[in-house]
Amino acid sequence: DQANYFDASQKYFDAMKIYQETKNYSRQIAVYSKLSLVFKEIEDYDSAMENLQKAKELLSIHEDKFKEMSVLGQIGSIYKRKKQYAEAKEYYYKSLEIAKEIGSERGIISAKSNLAILKMYQGDYESAIKIFQDMLATDSDKFLQYKRNRLITYNLLCEAYTHLGNYDKAYEYGTKAVKLSHEYGYRNTEKIAHENLSKLHEKLGNYQKALYHYQQRSDIHEDIANQKILRINKDMEVKYQTSLKEKKILELEKVEKEKSARLLILLYALIFSFLIIFFILSSIPCTSNFFLYLHTNIKCTFKLCFQGNFASQPLFASFALFV
């Protein structure tokens, strides 16, 4: 995974060079945001924050409220991971204000969810539940549209109610999360739902049910891991085939260059051989009239060649006839 994150970061750095050269601020902001997510996943929070601050600086030059909303929310998440909860809360509220300003339903849901999760990080489960319940009551239509957000909320409510000992409510939201996650095909949220229900049944002493949900969780986890391995293997196969193709092309280019070089050497050898024969024949004394005539023409042609005078066409014609 570390290698994959490194590979991803290198691609983003390469893309950044292009966007900086073309002064494409919007793309630069997007890349800084993506880089911060990569560094966040490997828990390099300083590098993640550094990239988000660069994105924030560019937003002062290139105004984009939607990207600003997203960047502020990401900064809040980094502060949350670093357990700087006051700063996290400040940035989540800033993100929420912009989401309301531009009318971004997804942004509003995301900011409210982040504020609720922050409460859970601080152990304030009652406040977290209140935020989630208000969201379900006031943003029910939006939650129907954004299925994944709804499933995440159900899982978080299950977890929060379990911590408070309200097991009936925890079971209600846990079973909703399992059913709908399976129905919608969201494997990660289904895995988390089974994990939550396993912990819940363990607290209730229902060990068979706890084991069942844990096995379901493990099977889904293994399936997700296998799918990931298949994707990685497919990517590796594509890279391997590409490298083979590149190698073959380079080898063909090398063969063509060597062939051209051999032909050039052969041509030089033939020219040199003709010149040697030319020189030898021009030096041989001749007695017969025909050979004397030919001999004289060869000597003159040889002389004219070295003088750079190629105007005497009959001499060359004679030489051509001789050859």
Care to describe what's here?
The protein is mainly alpha-helical and 323 residues long. It is 89% helix and 0% strand. The protein has helices at 2-21, 25-41, 45-61, 65-81, 85-102, 105-121, 125-138, 140-145, 147-164, 167-184, 187-204, 207-283, 289-307, 313-322. Helix 6 packs parallel to helix 9 (147-164) and helix 9 (147-164) packs antiparallel against helix 10 (167-184). It is elongated. The model is unreliable at 308-323 (pLDDT under 50).
Keywords:
323 residues; mainly alpha; 14 helices; elongated; disordered C terminus
In brief:
The chain has 323 residues and is mainly α. Helices cover 89% and strands 0% of the residues.
Q: What is the H/E string?
A: HHHHHHHHHHHHHH
Question: What portion of residues is helical?
Answer: over 70%
Q: How many β-strands, per DSSP?
A: 0
Q: What is the overall shape?
A: elongated
Q: What is the CA-CA span between the terminal residues?
A: 72 Å
Provide a count of the helices. 14
Radius of gyration, in angstroms, nearest whole number = 39 Å
* Classification by helices and strands: mainly alpha
The largest pleated sheet is described as: none
Extract low-pLDDT stretches: 308-323
Mean pLDDT over all positions: 82
* Share of β-strand residues: under 5%
